[in-house]
Amino acid sequence: MEYLGIDVGSVSTDFVLMDENLNIKEQLYLKTKGNPIGAIQKGMRRLDEQKNIPEIRGVGVTGSGRSLAAALVGADVIKNEITTHAVAAAATDPEICTVLEIGGQDSKIILLRDGIISDFAMNTVCAAGTGSFLDRQAERLGLAVSELGEYAARAENPVRIAGRCAVFAESDLIHKQQLGCSLEDIIAGMSEALVRNYLANVAKGKQIKNKICFQGGVAANEGIRRAFEKALDAEVQVPKYHKVMGAYGAAILAKEKMEVSDELTAFRGFRAGSGTITSETFRCGDCGNQCEVTLLKEGERQLGCFSDRCGKYQRSAALPL
Fold it and tell me: Can you name the residues that pair with 7 across neighbouring β-strands?
């Protein structure tokens, strides 16, 4: 038997198939591209193409689109990203005390004590501390995002970049280019600016202790990892599956739930990737709330409902097949 974890974020949608010993058997990292339904279905089709997949015993979902994923594929566990990233980090190394996570649109810090969350913080306000800022600058410099770490590693004298704001940071980067600074020194300076932003905002007031784990898509950037080590004067490790740790944690939580439950999984099967899914949004005028309701449908069958405060339309969802 295996367990499926899905993490639907604004930038990426990640999938993990995990066995009963917490070993990741399959992983997918797909770009969401503003279409979470399409990304989820694409991932399900990709997994369905893998032959000899054992029975799925449980499914966990997380991320900003977790409710959508739960309705679409059928989930047994729905958890926030803080919980799933912490669970995955503790499973990877029980001695982890600090989790640094930088995603496409937000960043997080999670403090663990004996594998239990003791504190956390998130930043969703400024793009200067997220992966989207790196994507934007790589495109502007004519580089692949994967090349940024290589350039930063060759820097001799990283320049000082104002990293408090994405707009000011980009202006400062352009200014340093016009002064003739080397691309390596500029990219290294950008990496250090992103880390300063993170530590001054997300990690403000937090007691960062060893061992330190760096997760999320940005963890693939060696320049950012080195900048963290320089700023913290400590080793920062990057897990093998750093890109899909949210999905991994969701799969672990699904396993934990199903092992103590007599219930069958709510998983709808990989066929969820091939159905015709539509969404319908309307404003309900039955009361003063004036809810903007979204219905998720497969044909005429309602799979899920979002944003109705009283639950009226959620109660009208179809029974499981």
Answer: 14, 62
Strand partners, 34: none
308 touches 317 (CB < 8 A): no
- The whole-angstrom separation of Cα 304 and Cα 315 is 10
- Entry pTM: 0.87
The amino acid occupying position 11 is V
Nearest to 315 by CA among 288, 293, 285: 293
What pLDDT score was predicted for residue 266?
92
Is residue 209 reached through a cis peptide bond, with omega within 30 degrees of 0 on the bond before it? no
Q: Is the dihedral of CA 133, 36, 14, 258 positive or negative?
A: positive
Q: Which two tokens stand for residue 99?
A: 């989790």
| DSSP letter (8 states) at residue 11 | S
Which amino acid, residue 185?
D
The set of long-range contacts for 135-144, using a CB threshold of 8 Å and a minimum separation of 24, is 135/104, 136/166, 136/170, 137/170, 137/173, 137/190, 140/170, 141/183, 141/187
Per-residue model confidence (pLDDT) at position 10? 84
The answer to whether 320 and 265 have CB atoms below 8 angstroms apart is no
How far is Cα 43 from Cα 272, in angstroms, rounded to an integer? Answer: 10
pLDDT at 103 over 90: no
**Exposure letters 156-183 (e unless 16+ CB within 10 A, then b):** eebbebbbeebeebbebbeebeeeebbb
DSSP state of 265: P
pLDDT in tens, 219-234: 888 888 999 999 999 9
Q: Which helix (H) or strand (E) holds 215?
A: strand 212-215
Q: Flag whether pLDDT at 320 surpasses 50.
A: no
